[in-house]
Design a protein that fits this description.
The chain has 14 helices and 14 strands. The protein is of the alpha/beta class. It has 3 domains: 106 residues, 3-Layer(aba) Sandwich (Rossmann fold), CATH 3.40.50.2300; 118 residues; 194 residues, Histidine kinase-like ATPase, C-terminal domain (Heat Shock Protein 90, 2-Layer Sandwich), CATH 3.30.565. Helix 3 links the parallel strand 3 and strand 4. It is an enzyme of class 2 (transferase). Its EC number is 2.7.13.3.
Length: 443
């Protein structure tokens, strides 16, 4: 079974002078269910021509040929700055040479005597190549956006106080983009890929003869590499959360909540979570961002639930008139308008009240990774989404008793009619209990 969904008919360039070995390789790939077209070459000239004409997605190369070899072939790839995965397939290369070539940048290697891991390594190499291509596109877009933001900052310097505030926000966004540019660069991805390759080599060659201490250390390396991958993905999610170029829509949160619950259904059932969803007032939001916000809050409550106690999650919303909102005395709330208030509470492990503000700081964690997994970015994303909506989020934690989040989003006058129209279209909700999920939902 292919672990990563490879696009159909990938182009595989096979550098091999032994016809029998080449046929055996092709038959193995066909039997594995891989959809591909291949071209077999054995000389430097045809290899170079194939790079221009055949345009391979991946290269499978024998280590040594009579007039050519894998080292020379890979040097051609590097000299041309081609990001094509390069896997050596050989029965004579030896592990020491394989490790040396991987240090030089070769993607991986497979023994001719054992093709069992070939499909997995092809899948992983194709996935990494696709991710690298996406990152290069993203970095190019970030450069363009950065240039545009710097230009906008120069223009905004001459505007009034409100526009100066906007200039600061754009400057902060620019700094975040630049930070992400640095973190997600090849310098971060490359060491992680090497670690994963070396883990694969050790598990394939050394696991049976390894001491228990060695096996334990290898598992710890694997856990660290996995967490690094999660950190990179979370950083990418954080960088993508931007209010720029996204449309607001008057939305009913019920559909968003049910969608998130469906995605987390396994954990919900495992922990026997109970949801109490009271009347939800429509609101003018960026829907996909609020889906991420709801997902992060619910998954946080499930993760930090009290052991052996079913999580009890309550979600509700109301409209606060401006006078009511002003009585809350919240900071940074200059807009004179009504506010939409979403409250989210649970009965989990909570936290000490002194951390009410710290939990929104990126990478801030109140628990060790061995106790609770995560990267400390989830609530930073939640706060950034709220700020994208010109809103305010407040957390109130009580140690061992749970946490309450209150989100306040301003309601512009021009959106009130659309919200009222959606409210009139909604049928009266009926609260039911799903016996399989042990959770409340609204029909």
């Amino acid at each position: 079974m292919v672990p990563y969904q490879i696009k159909k008919d990938i182009k595989i360039l096979i550098l091999e002078d032994n016809t029998a070995d080449a046929d055996l390789l092709v038959r193995h790939l066909i039997k594995s269910g891989l959809s591909f077209v291949s071209k077999i070459v054995e000389s430097k000239k045809i290899f170079e021509e194939s790079l221009d004409n055949f345009l391979p997605d991946i290269i499978l190369s024998d280590y040594s040929l009579p007039s050519f070899d894998a080292v020379s072939a890979f040097k051609i790839i590097k000299d041309r700055n081609l990001n094509i995965p390069f896997i050596i397939i050989s029965g004579t290369i030896g592990e020491e040479n394989a490790v040396m070539l991987i240090k030089e940048g070769v993607t991986d290697y497979v023994s001719k005597n054992n093709f069992s891991s070939l499909l997995q390594k092809i899948s992983r190499a194709m996935k990494e190549a696709e991710e690298l291509h996406e990152k290069e596109d993203l970095l190019e877009k970030l450069k363009i956006q950065t240039k545009a933001l710097l230009t906008a900052n120069q223009e905004l310097e001459f505007q009034n106080a409100e526009k100066e505030k906007r200039a600061i926000e754009l400057l902060n966004a620019n700094k975040e983009l630049l930070a992400f540019n640095f973190i997600s660069s090849h310098d971060l991805q490359e060491p992680l890929r090497k670690i994963q390759v070396f883990i694969s080599i050790i598990m394939e060659k050394e696991m049976k003869t390894m001491t228990e201490a060695g096996k334990n250390n290898l598992k710890r390396i694997h856990v660290a590499a996995t967490r690094m991958r999660q950190l990179i993905e979370d950083l990418m999610n954080f960088s993508r959360v931007s209010a720029i170029d996204h449309q607001y829509e008057v939305s009913d949160l019920q559909d968003i909540i049910e969608d998130v619950k469906s995605e987390l259904i396994d954990t919900i059932i495992q922990k026997k979570a109970i949801f109490k969803i009271n009347e939800l007032v429509a609101v003018n939001i960026i829907p996909f961002q609020f889906r991420q916000l709801i997902y992060n809050l619910i998954s946080n409550s499930l993760k930090f639930s009290t052991p052996d106690v079913p999580p009890n999650i309550t979600i509700q919303s109301v409209i606060l008139k401006n006078d009511e909102f002003r009585l809350l005395n919240l900071p940074n709330s200059p807009q004179i308008c009504d506010y939409w208030n979403l409250s989210f509470t649970d009965n989990g492990i909570g936290f000490d009240a002194q951390y009410n503000q710290n939990i929104f700081v990126i990478f801030q964690r109140l628990h060790h990774t061995e106790e609770y997994s995560g990267t400390g970015i989830g609530l930073a994303i939640v706060k950034k989404i709220v700020e994208n909506h010109n809103g305010i989020i407040v957390a109130e934690g009580i140690l061992n008793k749970g946490v309450a989040f209150n989100i306040y989003i301003p309601i512009p006058e021009n959106s009130k009619k659309s919200i009222a129209d959606l409210k009139h279209k909604k049928e009266k909700p009926i609260v039911t209990k799903n016996k399989h999920q042990n959770a409340f939902r609204i029909i």
